[in-house]
Amino acid sequence: MEKHIFGTLAMALALSSCGGSSTQQTTEPNQVQEATYKTLKLQNGVNVSHWLSQSERRGAERANQITKRDFDSIAAMGFDFVRLPVDEEHLYDKDLNRDEEGFQLMHNAIKWTLENGMNIVVDLHVVRSHHFNSENDHPNTLFQDPAEQEKIVKIWKDLQKDLSQYPNDRLAYELMNEPVAPTCEDWNKLVEKMVNGLRETEKERTLIFGSNRWQIPQTFDSLRVPENDPYLVLSFHFYEPSLITHHQAPWTDYSFYKGKINYPGVQITDSAALAALTPEQRKKIDSMNGEYNNTVMYEHMKLAIDKADSLGLHLYCGEFGAYPYFIEKEMRLRWYNDICNIFREHNIANCHWCYKGDFPIVNEDCSPNELPAILTKK
After folding, report:
1. How many domains does the chain have?
2. What is the reported pTM?
């Protein structure tokens, strides 16, 4: 899954690194209405993760991990598209020689998706020079080394040789997952390079990208979008409030908190549990704690909604989800219902993280759990 360590302090860092704002103006969000876009149609999707991305599996183990049966099941649950994260290491060696088995699995996934009447977003999730969790022992060089920026353009143009055979209204390219650039302008410049490179041969392919610092909505005012290109979709990710969505998730730096949580309302009011924390732990929790409900979540998405509306572009939440193992089921489902209602009300395409991994939409026997009915509700 997306192993984010993101709270108030990290958000402050994100906003301070994106101080320069775009010159594009925003408007009030549209009222409830259907919009028509030139891009492929996206509505309710799911990430097929940890297969061709963020996984050490290779050979038969990788091939058997996800099969046609999985895509048949996703379609049967009512989803209309999938997001397929792919990593450089799964498709290329260090010299950019192709891993033919990896490419074949990617083509299999596309074929199985299209055969089921769904659309697909191919997402370049991790490259050797950039990992979204660079703070977690994954040093990034992408934004410091011009050669690495040329390399990611080269990767996309090589992928394009294979992917361009698929219809524009069925397959989209997502340029990169959760950029973590030193400044928003660094990311804007790389977006321009990638878009210009792909547009040399494909003028009407849907291209998807978001803003700097993990694609959080709060940096959307600094995202520079190529002008006069209607075949773009803007993407954000949303895991707020993280004390709820990542409660006791072992990879976070706040998993030490084992007390009660609340949603909606102030996330943590358990005075006894707070009193048991060390001063450092209490400082961490206090920096993240606060009141959350559907209105607050909408307000935190508003910069992204306004940006897309002002440009007449479709908006897409490429990742969202709540870790299910330590939170009361009713509370978790309240959060899901609230966020999905926001998506529907504001015509935001959305793609749950994920299919099987740590935020599953299926039970151990791969039968649907309670989430698909909420996620695909029209």
Report:
1. 1
2. 0.93
